[in-house]
Write a structure and sequence with these properties.
Length: 543
RNA sequence: GGUGGGUUCGUCUAACGGUUAGGACUCAAGAUUUUCAUUCUUGCAAUAGGAGUUCGAUUCUCCUACCCACUACCA
């Protein structure tokens, strides 16, 4: 006997960009599917005709792609993908707007078996009742009590009902909640949950005006038709779980009802509430995987554009609300598939920590080989070249343009600075002196080192360098060290002054490494330039 | 207001009912170092509060507090 196949779905509605929390839900679905040899489905829930946002769906697809969370099945017209025996696919289409015709007959079925009824109350009527109730400090709900005095097929005569169905177009089909029934539910993450049906309201299932179902109907019908085995979704759905249980029951589908797992929400890093799309990037870090250009023209930061590696981003969100129970923190997508488990998802909401996110990216950067990073950096340089304007470190002068296109050279420059970087873009500041010679020098460093007899020492070192035949790290290092040692010069001061001459500031990796990578000629040229341009600060003789 | 969910260092989290409550990030100190980093070592720092069950409670039960979600012809 084959165990029923794992089929899970990620079902976003295209009302805006996907934020981190959404990506995490997709990721957990994906991991669960892959771990169980199952199918990960992307379904677009676009039953709200009024909230469609252009570009949102493309954004969702691209964001998942960037993360490496590839659907096995889903979409099209014309988001593509599909699959699961393509031609005779029994599950599609995957866009709810394309499934419009399916839902009505299921709503009708519920009317027939007495689990639903027609409601003719206008939204204005209902809103008025809500306001009235609010004024009296209680909440109006369309439920087992109030439905007895409202405009629906339960209170109206069959003839009147028939007439209204034919002559009006703003009626809905509502679910008829049973009275005083304890609904026992189970959640993989939270365990057993009970709720009394009396606390529920009679949700609208289908709307005549746009002939579309609401979330609840569409969701249950599609999950059933698509043979979804596990529903992994956000905690905001927990309150409607009893309704969903009852819908499965009303349709007679309890035997094939999926299991549920409700994920806790991602919280704002500061203040209150869940992380929301509205937050934008006001808090100093992105909440979206990709940059998002709203139809209004407003632009929100994205992790991708801010320089995060997709593997790092996936790792970060995977560990936000889940942990393997070991002390391992770095996981590839492949490893996550192996060790992920819904049982270890934490119940409490998680707050995102930007500092830790930096750390993750740094870890991933270090794992990448130098050439890969160099190629990525070269691509960035094509779009945004080095900035040679004056800054606190002094001014720079581009002296060897050919090196900007030299992959080997850039690779070496990067390898020397790798453990100083968090993002690839950090190499702009970290390696600029390998491409630009200083023409002005950090005043602070000049003041600190460039004084007394130092310039004359540097002059001598220049000649020493000039005479080194084999210009490699070992030889240069030994030669300079020996020279400084035999003359009993202050080692640190000389080296830092040499650094000032070559780099223009007090930064960069090992001095000898810099000399060797720059090359003998370039190094000598920079030293000469420094000797000519830096004004020595003589310390006053002690009186 | 009602219903449901949640609560361990600042943050993410670990801990068969028995641990000096562990790890990571951040921060601080020290060591190394030719700068800045890196690296290494050490440190700071938590079971929301109160009852109960138990020989023993972070863990189980109840109450309180606080937080979150839901309470739409939105998902």
């Amino acid at each position: 006997m084959e165990k029923s196949k794992v089929r899970v779905r990620f079902a976003p509605s295209p009302t805006g960009p996907l934020h981190m929390g959404g990506v995490r839900t997709a990721l957990y679905n994906y991991l669960f599917a892959k771990q169980n040899g199952g199918t990960f489905i992307l379904r677009i829930e676009d039953t709200d005709s009024t909230r469609f946002v252009p570009g949102a769906e493309d954004y969702i697809i691209e964001a998942l792609k960037w993360c490496g969370i590839n659907p096995d099945e889903g979409l099209d017209k014309d988001g593509h993908i599909v699959q699961s025996s393509d031609n005779n696919n029994p599950y599609g289409p995957y866009r709810q707007s394309l499934r419009k015709d399916i839902y009505k007959k299921y709503a009708d079925k519920l009317i027939e078996n007495g689990h639903a009824y027609y409601a003719f109350d206008s939204s204005e009527d209902l809103n008025r009742r809500r306001e009235e109730a609010e004024a009296h400090k209680y909440t109006f709900t369309y439920n087992y009590i109030t439905r007895k005095e409202l405009n629906n097929s339960l209170t109206l005569s069959p003839d009147k009902t028939k007439e209204l169905l034919e002559t009006t177009t703003n009626w809905t089909i509502r679910f008829k909640n049973p009275e005083d029934k304890m609904i026992k539910m189970h959640d993989i993450i939270r365990g057993d949950i009970e709720m009394n049906s009396n606390t529920l309201d009679d949700k609208v299932l289908w709307k005549r005006n746009d002939e579309l179902p609401t979330y609840h109907l569409a969701n249950i019908v599609d999950d059933h038709l698509m043979k979804i085995s596990h529903v992994i979704r956000g905690e905001e759905w927990l309150p409607s779980l009893p309704l969903h249980y009852m819908l499965y029951d009303a349709f007679g589908w309890t035997d094939s009802q999926p299991e549920f797992a409700h994920l806790s929400l991602l919280l704002k890093p500061t203040g209150k509430g869940k992380l929301s799309k509205r937050d934008g990037d006001k808090m100093g870090f992105p909440i979206f995987p990709l940059e998002w250009k709203a139809p209004t023209g407003e632009i929100s930061h994205g992790y991708r554009e801010d320089g995060y590696f997709p593997e790092a981003f996936v790792n970060i969100i995977a560990l936000l609300g889940w942990n393997p129970g070991t002390e391992q923190e770095i996981f590839s997508l492949k490893e996550l598939i192996d060790v992920f488990s819904l049982e270890r998802v934490v119940k409490a909401g998680a707050r995102f920590n930007p500092e830790k996110a930096h750390w993750f990216n740094q870890e991933y950067l270090r794992m990448k080989d130098d050439k890969t990073l160099a190629k990525e950096f070269m691509e960035m340089l094509k779009v945004k070249p080095f900035d040679n304007s004056t800054n606190e470190d002094g001014a720079k002068d581009l002296i060897n343009n050919s090196r900007i296109n030299d992959l080997e050279y850039i690779t070496k420059a990067i390898s020397l600075n790798k453990d100083r970087a968090t993002f690839v873009k950090d190499f702009y500041n970290l390696t600029d002196f390998f491409f630009y010679a200083p023409i002005e020098y950090s005043a602070k460093t000049v003041k600190k080192f460039w004084k007394n007899e130092i310039p004359s020492h540097i002059e001598e070192i220049k000649d020493v360098i000039k005479n080194i035949e084999t210009f490699d790290v070992e030889t240069v290092s030994k030669t300079i060290h020996d020279y400084i040692e035999t003359h009993e010069w202050p080692f640190g001061k000389v080296m830092n002054s040499l650094r000032l001459a070559l780099v223009g500031a007090s930064k960069g990796p090992d001095m000898v490494e810099i000399l060797v990578l720059l090359g003998k000629d370039e190094s000598i040229m920079r030293i000469e330039r420094a000797l000519a341009n830096i004004k020595p600060r003589q310390t006053l003789p002690q009186s």
